[in-house]
Design a protein that fits this description.
The complex is a heterodimer of chains A (111) and B (206). Chain A is α+β, with helices and mostly antiparallel strands. Chain A has helices spanning 4-7, 11-22, 27-37, 46-58, 81-105, and strands spanning 24-26, 62-69, 72-79. Chain B is built from nine helices and no strands. The chains are: A alpha+beta (111), B mainly alpha (206). Chain A: It comes from Flavobacterium buctense.
Chain lengths: 111, 206
């Protein structure tokens, strides 16, 4: 991931947001979607993505559907009910974080 | 451009040779690599082997990093186990066990030849023998989804060595008995739950 220290904490929220918008997605699709949306600026690495997906699955935030696609099995991830509620909370947290960062980095000065 | 069965088999063998031993982990990696190679073949007008080689040169280390993190010792599964133990019904069982051991001196039912300490040792060994039979004789294939529970067993084994040494002769207190039984029963129930979950989705992996 580009500048991984800054993005690391937001990876799961990014994944959950994408799944909220797209219903269900598989690992490679998620990496490509992020790359497309950010015009190649942000690249989620496989080494970061899959452990994050498995962790969310273990927490009951995501559930899995497996399908046979083009001679191989493909694992699709989608949000559970708990995951959908959690996404709203995490997005709100992320928005707060971004707002606070903006305030800190570009404070509006009162004269 | 879609990959053929032979191409898929080639990637699978490559991953096997790269020590990706768990089938469930390998399947996901395989799909990831296959998708990347297909895209490369479509955009770069390359044949499978050139596209695969080019893709792996750039992505191999990141993809295999996912495998390196899959040691039998998983902190995630330990965290899940601890969360399972603090659920209200688990704690309720713990309280019932304490009441039982407080009121019934189970040490009386054992002899010097076979103490309570020996019993826990035998139970833990029994569980691991069942798991070995299940993994290596029944399943015949390795699945991370189920083998990861072995990390908890390892911790319980060391805990009983420390708190319930098999060669001690003095009686075991109600608190020690409660904690030992609670952890052991918790592990058995947790393992069965994981087993049921795994079997429910087993068709996913085979």
């Amino acid at each position: 991931m580009k500048n991984s220290q800054l993005y690391k904490g937001s990876l799961t929220t990014i994944v959950m947001k994408l799944l909220e918008e797209n219903g269900r997605m598989y690992g490679y699709e998620i990496t490509q979607k992020v790359k497309d949306i950010t015009k190649g600026e942000l690249k989620i690495t496989e080494g970061a993505l899959y452990p994050a997906l498995h962790k969310l699955e273990a927490e009951g935030v995501l559930e899995v559907e497996v399908e046979n696609v083009d001679n191989r099995l493909r694992k699709y991830y989608k949000l559970t009910e708990k995951g959908s509620a959690e996404t709203i909370n995490r997005l709100a947290e992320l928005e707060d974080f971004i707002r606070n960062m903006q305030t800190l980095v570009q404070p509006k000065l009162d004269y | 451009m879609k990959l053929t069965k032979e191409n898929i088999q080639f990637i699978d063998t490559y991953l096997k040779n790269s020590d990706v031993i768990y089938i469930d982990i390998r399947q996901e990696m395989l799909d990831h690599i296959a998708s990347g190679v297909e895209q490369k073949m479509a955009t770069g007008q390359q044949d499978f082997y050139d596209a695969f080689k080019e893709y792996m040169v750039v992505n191999k280390s990141e993809i295999l990093k996912n495998n390196r993190n899959r040691s039998s010792f998983s902190w995630d599964v330990i965290r899940q186990f601890l969360l399972f133990l603090v659920k209200p019904y688990s704690l309720g069982v713990g309280v019932l066990l304490f009441i039982f051991f407080k009121n019934v001196d189970v040490n009386l039912y054992f002899s010097e030849d076979f103490t309570v300490r020996n019993l826990f040792f035998v139970l833990l060994i029994g569980v691991v023998l069942f798991q070995l039979f299940y993994f290596y004789i029944y399943l015949k294939k390795r699945f991370y989804a189920i083998e990861k529970t072995g990390a908890i067993w390892l911790i319980l084994y060391y805990l009983q060595l420390f708190f319930l040494p098999a060669f001690g002769t003095n009686d075991v207190s109600a608190i020690t008995l409660t904690i030992s039984s609670f952890l052991f029963l918790g592990y058995v129930v947790f393992f069965i739950q994981e087993l049921v979950k795994f079997h429910k989705h087993r068709f996913n992996y085979i």
